[in-house]
């Protein structure tokens, strides 16, 4: 197992375009999280899945953002009509259902630049 | 509300000891985590505290006082590779999202 993977690692787009990011969690981790991180700040929570169910969404997740985890494995995060303020690192994390810590394991992130 | 505070930057010398503080006010508490993040990379897990006291893992130790809403990460025998951001994160509810602090950027000088 190679850990959490994200694709693409970098994305440059023009304002108004739609973008989609993919996250593949660690196998058998049933919890999956999306965070956004801007330079010099800690990650900010966006949304959380347990298996295929989206259980929590942050107020940060405007109606231009949508996330899915259709089969309870990989997840996608789509941003429609991108704005310059969407430029950030988008981090995905996964955690096992049961462990003493239930810590989150992070992927390398997708860096989005909106021109 | 949720609020986590950490110093923005710290500098220390190779071989020294450094303590990075974190204070928090969250709507619930089910564990405090410390992560290390090198520039441009993903955060990696360092330590976990859910009960008061000190947890030691090699050169890294983490302390928690729930009554004071306070934690610190202690790094001993600093190495150049310890130059990174250190993120304090609180999990308000088990299994759900973390609330992260802004991170402390540590520079280790020769």
Topology:
The complex is a heterodimer of chains A (115) and B (110).
Chain A: E1 5-7, E2 10-13, E3 19-24, E4 31-37, E5 44-50, E6 53-57, E7 65-68, E8 75-79, E9 88-95, E10 105-106, E11 110-114
Parallel strand pairs in A: 2-11
Antiparallel strand pairs in A: 1-3, 3-8, 4-5, 4-9, 5-6, 7-8, 9-10, 9-11
Chain B: E1 3-5, E2 9-13, E3 18-25, E4 32-37, E5 44-49, E6 53-57, E7 60-65, E8 70-75, E9 84-90, E10 99-100, E11 104-109
Parallel strand pairs in B: 2-11
Antiparallel strand pairs in B: 1-3, 3-8, 4-5, 4-9, 6-7, 7-8, 9-10, 9-11
TL;DR of this structure?
Chain A is built from no helices and 11 strands. Chain A is mostly beta strands and 115 residues long. In chain B, a hairpin with a 4-residue loop joins strand 7 (60-65) and strand 8 (70-75).
Summary tags:
heterodimer, A: 115 residues, mainly beta, 7-stranded mixed beta sheet, 4-stranded antiparallel beta sheet, 0% helix, globular, B: mainly beta, 6-stranded mixed beta sheet, 5-stranded antiparallel beta sheet
Verbal overview:
The complex is a heterodimer of chains A (115) and B (110). Chain A is an all-beta fold and 115 residues long. Chain A contains no helices and eleven strands. Chain A has strands at residues 5-7, 10-13, 19-24, 31-37, 44-50, 53-57, 65-68, 75-79, 88-95, 105-106, 110-114. Chain A is globular, with a radius of gyration of 14 Å. Chain B has 110 residues and is mainly β. In chain B, the strands form two sheets. In chain B, strands 2, 4, 5, 9, 10 and 11 form a six-stranded mixed beta sheet that branches. Chain A binds chain B through residues 4, 31, 33, 35, 40-45, 48, 50, 55-56, 58, 91, 95, 97, 101-109, and chain B through 4, 8, 31, 33, 35, 41-45, 48, 87, 89, 91, 94-103, 105.
